[in-house]
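Might you be able to consider the sequence and fold that I enclose below?
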Amino acid sequence: MVGIVGVFSIIFAPYWGRRNDRKGFVKTLQVAALAVGVSTIVQSFVPSYEYLFGLRAIIGVFTAAIIPTLYTAFSKNTPHENRSGLMGLASSASLLGNLISPSMSGWVASHAGMRWCFAIAGAIMLGVAFFAVKSKKKELVSTP
């Protein structure tokens, strides 16, 4: 069930790369974070594994956009001399998230139930989408 996200991410990554070039990375991040956030919250209410599988596939489609889009934003908005440090920091934060997330999810599931894991993760992604909307109002460098 977990692997389906990776499979769909690999399939849809080229699409999101082209969309970044056409629409700009801020709009792509907004769409992807909103879709992942809503899909993750909806997972809290699924009645069967078939629905969960479908939602995980949708999350994979949109997850394919998030990390490459963030790296694009970093590279376009960071001076060249600071870029490698920021990329290293972003990679470390991603690794830290991959290490901490399962532990935190296990703790939440043991105390509040599995459905809350999805609700909290979805709320975090909706927060990312909100941040992306707010950052659009700033003068970020973005392709049209």
User: Anything to note?
Assistant: The chain is about 85% helix and 0% strand. Residues 3-136 form a domain with the Growth Hormone; Chain: A; fold (CATH 1.20.1250.20).
